């Protein structure tokens, strides 16, 4: 009975720690998404109005991209909200997959925005227009600074909580900073070059579209891998195997499969024990392995341990 009570307490503490850690990380991501919505809404209005008054399509396009960023941030927020919901009868493994799905949607929005802005940039290049107004440079400089600061904060947070959705939202801000920076360079060239250089800002916008599309693709790939249950980096597998091997009674290890779902990881591991052990003793070892692995990493939500006779394993 003593073993059972201590085992249950250890398992309950480990499970509670994992749940609290996941909720805290999801809450952080949601808060950052809300901040992104507010910042993008303010900047979108400023850039579009300045672009119209200042005769620069690059700034208008930049403003429309910020409008898309508002919807992207809302998608990220909703995806993280769904991912935070507990398991139910229809989703016994939880709703973590909502997080990579949100990342995929946002990545596709990035790529689509890049293509749409590229087409419009080409049209503007072929259409004669007035030289941009000098005051637009001040607005662009402010936008670059604000967006770069926001990118750094969100990307750092996304890396810390291991959220592809938050990192994809962060790259939206970096893309905005890139397009604004490109527009700043293009407008500067147009102003310094004089007549004949009016389309320099449109060429700059076209160049920025390439960066935006590339960032969208780089965000889409890992999200697709997570949705396909691709294995995490090898160092995590090695760490889990090392922890399992350190448990008393584990004589060998076989398979160790890990998949990521949202912000959590699920482990499936095969351990070899003395074939002459009782079922109760094998059960005890399995629980110790489960508790040890979960305690080693708060992001690990569940560990399924398969007990096998060690004389049938190669390792």
Which fold name fills CATH's third level, the topology of the largest domain?
Alpha-lytic protease prodomain-like
CATH homologous superfamily name of the largest domain? Answer: Cation efflux protein transmembrane domain
Major beta-sheet overview: 3 strands, mixed
Order the strands across the largest sheet as they lie in space. Answer: 1-2-3
The level-1 CATH class of the largest domain: Mainly Alpha
Average of the residue pLDDT scores: 79
Q: Could you list the spans in which at least 5 consecutive residues all have pLDDT below 50?
A: 1-10
Number of strands: 3
Query: What share of residues is helical?
Result: over 70%
Shape: elongated
CATH architecture of the largest domain: Up-down Bundle
Rounded to an integer, what's the Rg over CA atoms? 26 Å
What's the order of the H and E elements? HHHHHHHEEHE
Structural class: mainly alpha
Q: Strand share of the residues?
A: 5-15%
How many structurally independent domains? 2
Q: Can you walk through the features of this model?
A:
By secondary structure, the chain is mostly helical. The chain folds into 2 domains: 22-227, Cation efflux protein transmembrane domain (Alpha-lytic protease prodomain-like), CATH 1.20.1510; 234-312, Alpha-Beta Plaits (2-Layer Sandwich). The chain is 70% helix and 10% strand. It contains 8 helices and 3 strands; from the N terminus they run H-H-H-H-H-H-H-E-E-H-E. It has helices at 2-53, 57-83, 98-126, 136-160, 164-193, 200-227, 234-245, 279-296, and strands spanning 252-261, 264-273, 300-309. Strand 2 (264-273), helix 8 (279-296) and strand 3 form a beta-alpha-beta unit. Helix 1 (2-53) runs parallel beside helix 8. The two termini are 34 Å apart. Residues 1-10 have low confidence and may be disordered.
């Amino acid at each position: 009975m003593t073993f059972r009570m201590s085992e249950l307490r250890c398992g309950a503490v480990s499970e509670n720690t994992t749940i609290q850690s996941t909720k805290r990380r999801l809450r952080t991501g949601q808060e950052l998404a809300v901040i992104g919505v507010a910042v993008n809404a303010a900047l979108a209005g400023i850039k579009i109005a300045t672009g119209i008054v200042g005769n620069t399509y690059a700034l208008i396009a930049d403003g429309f991209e910020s409008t898309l960023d508002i919807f992207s941030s809302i998608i990220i927020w909703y995806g993280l909200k769904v991912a935070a919901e507990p398991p139910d009868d229809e989703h016994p493994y939880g709703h973590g997959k909502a997080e990579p799905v949100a990342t995929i949607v946002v990545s596709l929005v990035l790529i689509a925005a890049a293509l749409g802005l590229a087409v419009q940039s080409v049209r503007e290049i072929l259409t004669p227009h007035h030289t941009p107004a000098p005051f637009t440079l001040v607005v662009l400089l402010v936008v670059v600074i604000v967006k770069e600061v926001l990118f750094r904060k969100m990307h750092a947070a996304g890396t810390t909580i291991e959220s592809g959705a938050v990192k994809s939202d962060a790259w939206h801000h970096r893309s905005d900073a890139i397009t604004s920076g490109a527009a700043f360079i293009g407008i500067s060239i147009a102003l310094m070059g004089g007549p004949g250089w009016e389309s320099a800002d449109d060429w700059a916008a076209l160049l920025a579209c390439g960066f935006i599309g590339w960032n969208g693709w780089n965000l889409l790939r890992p999200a697709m891998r997570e949705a396909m249950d691709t294995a995490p980096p090898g160092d995590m597998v090695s760490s889990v195997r090392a922890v399992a091997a350190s448990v008393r009674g584990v004589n060998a290890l076989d398979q160790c499969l890990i998949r990521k779902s949202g912000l959590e990881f699920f482990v499936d591991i095969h351990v070899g024990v003395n074939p002459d052990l009782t079922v109760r003793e094998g059960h005890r070892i399995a629980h110790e392995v489960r508790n040890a692995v979960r305690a080693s990493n708060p992001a690990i939500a569940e560990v399924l341990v398969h007990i096998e006779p060690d004389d049938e394993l190669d390792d």
